Structure formats: C-alpha cells, structure tokens
C-alpha cells in the first residue's frame, strides 16, 4: 500500500529554499550529464550503443531501480537500489558517460512506473549523476590510466574502488538528505543520522559487488544477469523485514501510522524539543456522526470513507508532521515542531476545511465534520501519555460544545488533579450536607407575578465558598455518586416545597435532570417515594429535561419519561435551541413547557435573526398547546420583546437571581408570589 504520509511528490512553491535547492541540484546534475556526453562525442556514444554489454547492464539497472532495498522507518521507494552494483560497475569499466546515461534512463523509467512527480524524477536523476561524478573524479584522480579505456581493478586498486564507493555514498547521502530536511523542515543532522548504520551496511554490500560484476563483464556478458539471483534474495529478505515492521506500525485499512508508531515518533519529537527548546503539538481528531454512515450504508462504505479521510488529512499537514489512525473514526496528528497555540489552531482549522468538502461515494454525497482537541508540550504535558490524555479532553470539549476546535484548558478537564481532589471532597459534601438548593423565580410576563421556581444546586464549600453547578455536577455525572446526588437534590427540594405549601405558597418547583439520571430505571420510584414521604402532590414538582439529552438519548430515556408522567409529574424541555431538536420529534412525549435557551433570548433586541428564531419557537410552542418560557432575561427591553411575541413567562436576573430558600420566600411575598392566609397556584 502506498504510504499516505509520504508527500515528497508535492511540488515546493517557487522561490522557497527547497525549490531553489532542487532546481540548483537538477541543473547541476543535468549539466554534468550533458557535459560528459558532449565530451564523449557522437563517435563514443555510437560505440557504447554498439556494445551488447551496455544494453544488458541497462536492463539490470532498470530492474534494480524498481526494486530498492527498503530500510525501516523510510518510504518503500527510498532505499538503496539493487541497480547500484551494475551502474557502479559500468562507472568503473567504461567511465562516467556510460554510467550516467544508463542511470538516467533507468531513473526516468522508474519515475514513470511509480508515477513520481516530474520534479522528483529530475532531482533523482541529477543526484545520481552528481554522485557518480564525484566517484569517477576520485578514481581518475588517483588512477589516471583508468580513463584511457575499459578498466578492471586488481589488487590494491580495489582500495581505490572502495574510496570511490565511499565518495559516492557520502555525496548521495548529503544530496538526498538535504532535500528531505528542507521538505520536512527539520535539522539536517537529525535526518543524516537516522538509520545511518543500516544504510551504510546495505550500500557497502551493494558497492562491494561492483568489482565482481566488472570481472563477470570481462569473461562473459551473460554472467552479469546471474547477479540478479543473490540481489533478489537480498531484496526479498529486506522487503519481508520491512513489511513486517510496516504492518506492526501502520493501520491496515488506511496505511497511516498506528498508535505504536505515534508513541515512538512523539517520544522522539519530545526528546528533540527538550534539547532545542521548542514546542510539540498533538491533535486528536474525531469524526462527527460517522457511526450513522456505518449503520446506514454498511462498513465497506465506511471503510472507503475512512481511506478518503486519511488521504485528505495527510495532504493538509506539513511535511514532517505525522497522521495516525488510533481506531474507528479517531485520528491523531503529531506536530514535531509548532510555534505556538495559534499555529496549532491553524493546522486544526486546515484539517477541518479539508474534511468539509463533500465526499461522493456510490452516487451519494457525504458531508464530514470533525472535532479537534489540541495539547502542546511543554505547556500542557511533559510526556506522551499526558499529552494524549489532554488532547482527548480538549477534543471531547470541542465535541460537547460543538466548537470544532479546542485547546486544552485545565479548568475544563474533568480528570485533572484538582478535579480528582474535588471528587474526594464531594463524597464528604454529600455525607455532611454541604449541598444546598437555591431557587430562581419564573414570572408571568403579563403581570410579573411568580408562576414557579427552579431549584438550582449549590455547594457551600468550606474553603472555596459557594460553587456553581458547572464546577462539580459534571464530575458527579461521571461517577458512582450520581444516585446519592439525585436523592439529595430531590430530598431538599421536596422538603422545601412541603414547607412552602404549609405557608401558603403552592407554586410548582422545577428540578433539572441529567442524561445519567434519566437513564436510571429506578428514578420514577425514587421520585414517587420522595413525594409520598413529604406529602407533596406530583403537580407541585416539575422535572426539566435538557434538549441535548433528547437529541442524544431520546429512545433510551423515553421509558423513564413516560413513567414520570404516569406519576402526574409535569415535564419541561430545557435549553431549547441548543441541541438541534425539533418539536416534531417529541412524538407524543408528555412535555407541557418549553424553555427557550438564553443564548437566543438575549439576541432579540439587537439581532433580527435572533428575533425570528425566538418568535418562530414561541409560535410553534403555542400551536402545540405548550407554554413557552424565555430563559436568561436580563433587560427590560428583552422582556417586553418576548412578551410581544406571545411568550407565556420568563426567568432571569432582571426579575431575580438564584436565591437561598429564605430569600426566595421573601422575594415571593414582596412580588405577589405569596400572601398570608392565601394559597396561590400557578396557572
């Protein structure tokens, strides 16, 4: 399988250092080739063309160019070619013109066969000619007689051949690795030293065969093809070894790096970053709604889609960056060098743009979106494990909040050390009754009288003061404390509702339910037991269900919702507008009230689109026979606007912030929500 991470066929931009280097090397190599052919002259070239030996060697060189001996951690087509013994033997026997011309023809044929870009084929041709030119210069410098005609080295002359072979290897290594270093934007010494022992050994073996090929040329040209057998054995052995290494380090479906190779490359990048004091970035990417493709069209289509994703990702990162598939629809991108968080965000944005273009498969267009999390070394983590964990946290924040791209932030990490410490304190808080319920009134927009209250949990922390729900509720939702937390919230709320009813306040009180609570089949029994224990009628309690829960878990939570309705407990759909839920999907679920999210409500004064959205929602809610409540009302203008649209009630700091129970009772008495000796019920 072609390595999707290999981007060497992507041409450099004109005028860049890489472009100038490739252009300069190509011109120099082609100039040397042309000069050597001119020096040989038409008669010399005709003599070479009449040599059957040259044509036999040409065939062997072409075959050898197509069968390089691959080395680990390198592209399959970038190893030492098995053509080297034959082309170097031609250099020894006939000199540079014959060797350069044969090698040039073989390089062009191999480039066409592998579909290499023209600039890459031209550079390969040039670097071969220059390397052979240096080797030829070494031989002719120390043995001028070698230029007089066919030369067969003997005895001590083999040392000169070895010196020329070393000159070829060094020149070829420097020419190629300079281009690779510029292409991947890494220091030259880091690529020069990579697998240098393996490459030196393979090239030494191949070059050592060249004098034997020369000896075979002298005796019979038909002995030359026999060298194909030991070279084929060497090629097969190396290929099997590299194939096993590739299978161990790459994903079978996409050809991308797997987790094992990602770990290795990240650790190498971190080691270099510590020495050179630069940043390393790790991006974790998860496709949105990919499961729907597999479920609807089957895994074969899903696999083809993943292969397309792999190709787009690798062509959207910089040379030297690594794209890996971690499994399923989750990918990682390693940035061995990144300037800052803004640069990492640019890469993430480029990846999302590349995926956004529709993919056409089986006559259908697929729109892909992805959530990307970013973590940087040393800003966020000192090693691979923490870097991966924190990129994962950022990715799930991006997915949950639908922001597309998120940089790791400690305060959003539900698994940070501070959060784990907070979890231990939460267990104590439940035992020692540190959780308290605050209450925020909901008012009728026609007369501003209270028609209900919403119970909001707070944690009165002994050191940190009163904590809002977002600081600890997500941690509870991921733990075994959920059931105890639900019991405590219902117990405090129902107890307060019972006391207020005894004082003449018969307003319904709402309690928010999370997805985790609604997935508990025991919840209806817990609610029923609490209502009986405190003598509170079901209509006095209202349960609020977040819209995102209805989007993600509608089928799973429906039985519990219906069971709660059977108890006579009214239900509200909370945060409407944030989860892409349509009222038509309620499918007869017993919801009496829709609470329009404050992010939309706050826009009705200044944003025409916001007014249209809220007005449409209020109109539809009324058509379905439900009540509409506007959340987050903070100004008189917003209150008047939503009232003019036909909204039933509103809630927000314009009327009252969340209040402690005693303050809420005082507010109700001051604002017509309770009168001594009279019971007031919500309409």
From TrEMBL:
It comes from the Bacteria. The keyword Ribonucleoprotein does not apply. SUPFAM superfamilies: EAL domain-like, Nucleotide cyclase. The chain crosses the membrane at residues 20-40, 52-70, 90-113, 125-146, 158-180, 200-224. Residues 278-410 form the GGDEF domain. CDD domains: EAL, GGDEF. Residues 419-672 form the EAL domain. Keywords: Membrane, Transmembrane, Transmembrane helix. This is EAL domain-containing protein. InterPro entries: Biofilm_reg_signaling, EAL_dom, EAL_sf, GGDEF_dom, Nucleotide_cyclase, Rev_trsase/Diguanyl_cyclase.
């Amino acid at each position: 399988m072609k390595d999707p991470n290999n981007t060497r066929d992507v041409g450099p931009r004109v005028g860049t250092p890489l472009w100038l280097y490739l252009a300069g090397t190509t011109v120099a190599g082609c100039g040397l080739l042309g000069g050597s052919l001119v020096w040989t002259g038409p008669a010399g070239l005709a003599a070479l063309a009449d040599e059957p030996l040259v044509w036999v060697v040409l065939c062997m060189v072409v075959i050898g160019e197509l069968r390089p001996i691959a080395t680990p951690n390198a592209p399959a087509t970038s190893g030492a070619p098995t053509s080297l013994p034959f082309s170097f033997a031609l250099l020894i026997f006939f000199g540079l013109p014959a060797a350069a011309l044969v090698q040039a023809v073989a390089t062009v044929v191999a480039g066409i066969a592998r579909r290499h870009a023209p600039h890459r084929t031209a550079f390969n041709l040039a670097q071969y000619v220059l390397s052979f030119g240096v080797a030829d210069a070494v031989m002719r410098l120390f043995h001028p007689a070698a230029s007089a005609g066919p030369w067969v080295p003997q005895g001590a002359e083999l040392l000169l051949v070895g010196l020329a072979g070393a000159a070829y290897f060094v020149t070829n290594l420097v020419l190629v690795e300079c281009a690779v270093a510029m292409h991947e934007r890494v220091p030259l010494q880091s690529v020069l030293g990579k697998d240098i022992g393996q490459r030196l050994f393979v090239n030494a073996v191949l070059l050592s065969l060249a004098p034997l090929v020369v000896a075979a040329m002298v005796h019979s040209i038909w002995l030359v093809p026999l060298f194909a057998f030991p070279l084929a054995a060497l090629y097969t052995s190396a290929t099997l070894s590299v194939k096993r290494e590739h299978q161990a380090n790459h994903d079978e479906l996409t050809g991308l790096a797997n987790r094992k190779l990602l770990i290795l490359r990240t650790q190498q990048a971190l080691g270099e970053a510590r020495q050179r004091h630069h940043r390393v970035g790790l991006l974790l990417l998860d496709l949105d709604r990919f499961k729907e493709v597999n479920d609807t069209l089957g895994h074969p289509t899903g696999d083809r889609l993943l292969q397309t994703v792999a190709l787009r990702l690798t062509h959207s990162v910089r040379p030297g960056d690594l794209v890996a598939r971690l499994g399923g629809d989750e990918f990682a991108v390693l940035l061995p060098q990144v300037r800052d968080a803004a640069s990492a965000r640019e890469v993430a944005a480029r990846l999302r743009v590349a995926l956004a273009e529709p993919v056409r498969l089986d006559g259908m267009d697929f729109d892909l979106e992805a959530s990307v999390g970013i973590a940087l070394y040393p800003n966020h983590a000192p090693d691979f494990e923490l870097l991966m964990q924190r990129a994962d946290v950022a990715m799930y924040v991006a997915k949950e909040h639908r922001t597309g791209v998120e940089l790791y932030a400690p305060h959003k990490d539900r698994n940070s050390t501070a959060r784990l410490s907070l979890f231990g304190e939460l267990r104590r808080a439940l035992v020692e009754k540190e959780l308290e319920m605050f209450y925020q009134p909901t008012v009728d927009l026609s007369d501003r009288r209270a028609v209900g209250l919403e119970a909001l949990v707070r944690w009165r922390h002994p050191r940190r003061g009163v904590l809002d729900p977002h600081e600890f509720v997500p941690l509870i939702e991921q733990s075994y404390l959920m059931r105890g937390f639900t019991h405590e919230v219902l117990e405090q709320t129902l107890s307060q509702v019972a006391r207020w009813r005894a004082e003449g306040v018969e307003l319904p009180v709402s309690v928010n339910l999370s997805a985790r609570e609604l997935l508990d089949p025991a919840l209806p029994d817990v609610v029923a037991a609490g209502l009986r224990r405190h003598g509170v009628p079901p209509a006095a309690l209202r349960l609020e269900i977040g819209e995102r829960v209805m989007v993600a878990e509608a089928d799973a939570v429906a039985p519990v919702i219906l069971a709660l309705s059977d108890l006579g407990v009214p239900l509200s759909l909370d945060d409407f507008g944030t989860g892409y839920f349509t009222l038509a999907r309620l499918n007869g679920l017993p919801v009496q009230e829709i609470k329009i999210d404050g992010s939309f409500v706050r826009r009705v004064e200044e944003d025409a689109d916001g007014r249209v959205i809220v007005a449409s929602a209020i109109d539809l809610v009324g058509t379905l026979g439900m009540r509409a409540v506007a959340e987050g009302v903070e100004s008189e203008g917003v209150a008047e606007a939503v009232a003019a649209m036909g909204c039933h009630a509103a809630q927000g700091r314009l009327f009252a912030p969340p209040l402690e129970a005693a303050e809420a009772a005082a507010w109700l008495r001051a604002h017509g929500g309770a009168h001594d000796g009279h019971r007031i019920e919500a309409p």
